[in-house]
Amino acid sequence: MDPETGKVRVDRMTAVDDFGNVINPMVVTGQVHGGLGQGIGQALVENTTYDENGQLLSASYMDYTMPRADDLPFYIVDHSKGNPCTHNPLGVKGCGEAGAIGSPPTVVNAVIDALQSGGKNVTHIDMPMTPHRVWSAMNNA
Amino acid sequence: MYAFDIERPSSVADAVAALGAEDAQALGGGQTLIPTLKQRLAAPSKLVSLGSVTEMQGVASEGGSIRIGGATNHATVAAQVGGTYPALADLAANIGDPAVRNRGTIGGSLANNDPAACYPAAALASGATIITNKRQIAADEYFQGMFTTALGEGEIITGVLFPVPEQASYQKFVQPASRFALVGVFVAKYSDGVRVAVTGASNEGVQRWSAAEEALSANFSADAVSGLNFPTDDLIADLHGSAEYRAHLVKVMTGRAVVAAS
Fold first, then answer.
1. A2 FRET partner, CA 20 to 30 A, in A35, B7, B41, B135?
2. Does domain B5-49 bear CATH number 3.30.43.10?
3. How close A53 gets to chain B, by Cα (Å)?
């Protein structure tokens, strides 16, 4: 975190999941990567916002921040310790949304932890934790 | 997009003649104009592309200055200016993405004068001279508020003359979606003083920060600006940052530019 500007960078991220029997590990890992990116986007940058007249302010990618490659870290993904599902004959479990479920609270908690480690008494920041919001939280703490 | 004619003149004189048609519009690299046309926000009768005007292309050293042709794209500036004016090459290398840098031109950027564009900060901080088909305009007179310049009807930026400073740096804090400058600060140190130009922050468009210029001219160090506050009057406030946040970023980026100046 840049203490002068409030800009947050995700340095690294590790995700471990139980997907039961994995048929194609490469595809499953890719699915998790996509979910993690979606979750980081939600936590840090993506924002649908309206003005008081109901006008959409984030109406194009000039104002709506889609997470891009340089917003994201390299990931460590492990799904090697799966317990086969007992409710279907293949023993598989869903993996499509897994990355997107765990990553937003993980990123928020990491930011709060970083602020508290830096002596700032911040317990909550609304998503997305844009540089402006993080800077404001730092300066109001 | 509405229908339009297009001309590709090969000389400034032919371009000026073509622009004499009613509702004709000059086209540089099209990085602003083409999206505007696609959204049907403009309906020129004719586009006059300046990309084939060879006399408006390229980079040349002239004494202690660099002259850049108005139709020169950002990638060319990034590749060719590094040896003489590294801060300017660095600025050009960080505009948009490779596709933008290979299409967008310095003349187009300065003629549009987007309040968050990078080149206006370089031109103003360098005390550059905007050269048109009619006259030479000092940067201090050229920029007249957001999307407003001293250019008249049928006037084309044929070149820009940048005096090369002793030290300079451009520091940009990007708006996360567009990657334009949320705030960008260009600091240039000349033998007769320091010039500081701020882009992205103000509803007035690019502007100089006179208090920082005085402080840095007396003492060229980040400490010299740490006690200053950029005035918040008429600063842009939007979903990406309040006026107070932008004012704060101006100070931070100015300090970083002084440290990074080379």
1. A35
2. yes
3. 15
